[in-house]
Amino acid sequence: MSVNNETLLSIIENMQKNIGENRSYLSDLDREIGDGDHGINMDRGFQEVMKKMDEMKEQDISGILRTTGMTLAFKVGGASGPLYGTAFMKASDTLKGKEEIVLTDLPGLLDAAIGGIQLRGKAVQGEKTILDTLFPAKEALENAIVEGKNSEQAIDAMLKAGEEGAEYTKTIKATKGRASYIGERSIGHMDPGAASALILLRSIAEIVN
Ligand code: ADP
Ligand code: MG
Q1: Which residues share a beta bridge with 3?
Q2: Is there an atom of ligand 1 within 6 Å of 78 CB?
Q3: Residues near ligand 2 ion, CB 5 Å cutoff
Q4: What is the spatial distance between Cα 65 and Cα 88, in angstroms, rounded to a whole number?
Q5: Helix (H, G, I), strand (E, B) or coil at 102
Q6: Ligand 1: which of 46, 83, 125, 170 to mutate, judged by most atoms within 8 Å of the beta carbon?
Q7: Whose CA is nearest to atom 27 of ligand 1?
Q8: 129 CB-near residues (< 8 Å, 6+ apart)
Q9: What domains appear along the chain, each with residue ranges and CATH number?
Q10: Which residues contact 45 (CB under 8 A, 6 or more apart)?
Q11: Separation of alpha carbons 118 and 106, rounded Å
Q12: In whole angstroms, how far apart are CA 54 and each of 59, 101, 202?
């Protein structure tokens, strides 16, 4: 696996496409436990990112992630904008001066993204958030690399763990964000942020595999 700036732009385009296609799905999930705007927020954010395509074509991989993060952070109204925005900006920091992303860069990149989300949102794993997808996905990726798996296998493992993580959010109650207002009643529903995080991971896997 090797992601240069052209491939990275394809990944971001694929994120926009998949988020756009899942706009209603994400808002429906948010309607169950929040205010019903998660799909709208994410879709608006990635549409704004698309407006920066010409600018990003001139940037290196770190710059592309920075521009994406800044755009999400400043153009998305909901809680998720600054959270995902910080995630992309922190991931950008791990790639300064690099021309490509290889498989072994991915865990560090995800780790930084998770750190950014935690810096902003102060959540830990098990609070029914984006992190419940990203944490297990990162761990599975790390383990697969240690076990000597190739990039396709490692990315499949990442995705599978992310899927299980998102599913797991159905079984727990929200203790962070808007969904925490309904407490126990949030059990039984998938967290919209965990679902969007899975869509973003899948968008990466579709391009790199
Ligand atoms: P809002 O809650 O402002 O309407 P969104 O609907 O766009 O924003 O995003 C909601 C999602 O944000 C939740 O499903 C959850 O995954 C995520 N989220 C909320 N608060 C936090 C937090 N403190 N840490 C991590 N993720 C969070
Ligand atoms: Mg919402």
Answers
A1: 101
A2: yes
A3: 30, 34-35, 37-38, 78
A4: 6
A5: strand
A6: 83
A7: 129
A8: 117, 121, 123, 169, 174, 176, 177, 191, 193, 194
A9: 2-208 (1.25.40.340)
A10: 71, 72, 75, 76, 80, 81, 84
A11: 18
A12: 9, 21, 25
| Nearby residues of 54 by Cβ (< 8 Å), 6 or more positions away | none
List pLDDT tens digits, range 9-39.
999 999 999 999 999 999 999 999 999 999 9
Q: Which of 38, 86, 131 to mutate to test the pocket of ligand 1 (most atoms within 8 A of CB)?
A: 38
pLDDT band at 209 (very low <50, low <70, confident <90, very high): confident
pLDDT, one tens digit per residue, over 157-186 is 999 999 999 999 999 999 999 999 999 999
Q: Does the pLDDT at position 75 exceed 80?
A: yes
**pLDDT value of position 77:** 79
pLDDT score of 188: 97
CB of residue 37 inside a 6 A radius of ligand 1: yes
pLDDT digits (tens, 9 = 90+) for 122-142: 999 999 999 999 999 999 999
